[in-house]
From TrEMBL:
InterPro entries: Cro/C1-type_HTH, HTH-type_regulator_Rgg, Lambda_DNA-bd_dom_sf, PlcR_TPR, TPR-like_helical_dom_sf, TPR_rpt. Residues 13-66 form the HTH cro/C1-type domain. This is Tetratricopeptide repeat-containing protein. Pfam families: HTH_3, RNPP_C. GO terms for molecular function: DNA binding. Keywords: Coiled coil.
Length: 299
């Protein structure tokens, strides 16, 4: 049976730790906890590159030599780094993303235009969420977009579409809904022009984001239309991703338009999906909406 990357890393760390005559507790000091080291050695988790650096330094081994043994090529290592960054972004762990980006930038891993674009993209995100500088953040994101999108009105990579999505999100966050809507529509147009579509979740994310900005801009009917587009993609592709959120957003629009029965049905569907996904915080929010809707009907 072929070992996974996590198992290879864990096996090598355990071997090197024993050679250094260190216990898991001793290795963990100044790095993390004994439980974390245990999980890494068992191959249950892939440690962050910064954690690997600290482990390698404590074990007295060359980090790059260690990576060469674990990863088949530099591109595979970079892929792992990018996956980790995207995971931390989804978890809104922006300080950890900053740590990883700073460390990897020093190692010169973002060399090609495409990889440096990834770096600038996330630098732009951090500039907004950590430094709270929206103009500078958008400037970084626009620079990132133009890095591979020079003098053309077409988008050729999914990464370019995702950068447009990030710009649209920031405009939404600063309540510039018209600019947000414009960027979302640009991203959707380019997504549809792509020759090969590899990730439908990006399309769903765009429809959901646009629906939210349209709702905030009081364009309720159009928001409902984009909720339906997102829901249709989820159903056709058999994807649950953001399906509950789309029904919830649809419910908000119907409620604002005083279409109470449609709002109730949308909220109920959203609640069922959140129950399937075991998301109690979302269920609570929907229950509050249903209660408010019921009170409106009674009064």
């Amino acid at each position: 049976m072929q070992l996974s990357k996590a198992q290879i890393i864990g096996k090598n760390i355990k071997k090197l730790r024993k050679q250094a005559q260190l216990t898991q507790v001793e290795l963990a000091q100044g790095i993390g906890t004994q439980a974390q080291i245990s999980k890494i050695e068992q191959g249950l988790v892939i440690p962050l590159s910064t954690t690997l650096y600290e482990i390698a330094e404590k074990l007295g081994v060359d980090l790059h030599g260690f990576f060469e043994h674990v990863y088949e090529s530099q591109s595979n290592y970079l892929k792992e780094v990018k996956n980790q960054i995207r995971k931390e972004i989804r978890n809104r762990n922006y300080e950890e993303v900053e740590r990883i980006l700073t460390f990897e930038a020093k190692n010169n891993v973002f060399q090609s235009d495409y990889d440096y674009q990834f770096f600038l993209w996330h630098k732009g995100i951090l500039t907004f969420y950590i430094d709270q500088l929206h103009e500078k953040s958008i400037a970084f994101l626009e620079e990132a977009f133009k890095l591979t999108n020079k003098n053309k009105d077409t988008v050729t990579t999914l990464q370019e579409v995702e950068i447009l999505n990030s710009i649209a999100i920031i405009y939404n966050e600063i309540k510039d809904y018209r600019q947000s809507i414009e960027k979302y529509k640009q991203a959707i147009r380019h997504f549809k022009e792509m020759i090969e579509i590899t990730d439908r979740r990006v399309e769903i994310r765009l429809y959901y984001g646009l629906a939210k900005s349209l709702f905030k801009n009081q364009d309720y009917e159009e928001s409902i239309a984009y909720c339906k587009k997102g829901i249709n993609v989820c159903i056709n592709e058999e994807i649950l991703y953001l399906l509950g959120e789309l029904y919830y957003e649809q419910g908000q629009n119907y409620q604002t338009l005083e279409k109470r029965e449609l709002a109730h049905n949308a909220y109920q569907t959203a609640k069922q999906l959140f129950q399937i996904g075991k998301r109690p915080a979302f269920i609570k929010v929907v229950d509050e909406k249903l209660t408010a809707l019921k009170d409106d009907i009674i009064t």
